[in-house]
């Protein structure tokens, strides 16, 4: 599937699945209602895309049934016949490093739909979910989100979720998590975690971005930071160009984090875009922008190498079976 092998890309966050659930007639290959399509992935050299299961509570209550619906959308419309291969295991990630092909992964953006039930978490693992973002912006049964004013940490059931993730191999994602929860997780987790779609607060002061201290903690544990293309996370005021994304890359590098940088676009989760980064087909041009300013080895790491090496090291093996 990967047509542009010289510009290989891994993208750690998009919101295609919520659109597919709302409109089952969408054609993932080429539908103009999507930012991320198979054709655009081909054009941009995107060989790995992480698809988030996001349950908006604007229409109805978050439930496990709705999680299952988006997993089914992924199975039938994204990873179906002629689509992406499903990446679940470290062995597959290691294979991807040397033999690139089009693959997709599943993540959960906010555990609200698990309804506080760790058996549902185990079912998600068995059905192929490999990342869990603990919260969206607000509080749920496990922890507080970044826009929850009280800035609380984890609940008792949320701490049990951390422990289960450590034992099962389910990876954790701190984008959207309140700072208190970030620091509690950094103390309690025995495995590194990621921020799938967050930028540097020192460059753009949006509360969804990471402080220097959080970035340094992710660097110290060899986690990953998915630099994102949400305009209001890129530049104060919200109007941004592709060149503005470079300021976040440079700042993270100044803290020693070149080896932790990847990308998490948030395509299909936004309704306005960074100029020059409107969809995954633009990754080819963005790669040329990066290569004009930075060493090739670093750029390859940011585009795909850092993400794939993290997966090859930290995903569970096929022999692992989570236990409750």
TrEMBL record:
Lineage: superkingdom: Bacteria
One GO molecular-function entry: metallodipeptidase activity
Pfam family, one: Peptidase_M19
A biological process from GO: proteolysis
Protein name in UniProt: Dipeptidase
Species assigned in the record: Paenibacillus riograndensis
Phylogenetic classification of the source organism: Bacteria, Bacillati, Bacillota, Bacilli, Bacillales
